[in-house]
Design brief:
mainly alpha, Bax_inhibitor_1-related, flat, about 180 residues, transmembrane
Length: about 180
């Protein structure tokens, strides 16, 4: 098994769009199918929270999500632990959906790519604070589209990392879903 914390980034791979092997294509299908399922489970968590107000202890929900993420990280990737880890991932997604929409971004388990995307996020934060006082529709719209571009860039960046790691033998798709 591979070390879960061995996530060295080869930035040259970000611009490599050569042929992707069949096993890597299958790996990408697993990553994005699991990611779609997690988004559905997170949406269910958010919906249940809004409709029923079932979980009123936000701190406990957040700690539960962090606990599941830590447990998932500590559980090695193998055929025997796959279902257990998928259950932990689904529980994490549900609690994260309940806890708040911005939580997934703040809990990504590996470093942010270079300064460009981080600078964009900082710019979005500052413009949101300014717009809270100004109330500009134009600034809101600009911030919305800037956020869309930055988040799409994160997905492209992460997909290239997933491809590079899968080509080098890291087939832990559950970890990459957590990263996305």
């Amino acid at each position: 098994t591979m070390n879960v914390f061995d996530r060295n980034i080869n930035f040259d791979a970000l611009f490599k769009f050569s042929h992707i092997s069949a096993s890597t294509q299958e790996h990408l299908k697993r990553v994005y199918a699991s990611f779609a399922l997690c988004m559905f489970v997170a949406a269910m968590g958010a919906y249940i929270n809004v409709v029923t107000h079932l979980f009123q202890f936000s701190l406990l929900t957040g700690l539960g999500a962090l606990g599941l993420m830590a447990w998932l990280t500590a559980t090695p990737h193998s055929q025997e632990t796959e279902k257990k880890r998928l259950g932990m991932l689904a529980g994490f997604a549900f609690l994260t959906g309940r806890w708040g929409p911005g939580t997934l971004l703040s809990l990504t388990p590996y470093p942010l790519p270079e300064g460009f995307l981080l600078s964009g996020l900082t710019l979005m934060l500052l413009s949101s604070v300014v717009n809270a006082f100004v109330g500009s529709t134009w600034l809101f719209t600009a911030n919305l589209y800037l956020g869309l571009m930055i988040m799409c860039s994160f997905v492209l960046f992460d997909t290239q990392l997933i491809i590079e790691k899968a080509e080098s033998g890291d087939k832990d798709y559950i970890w990459w879903v957590l990263g996305l």
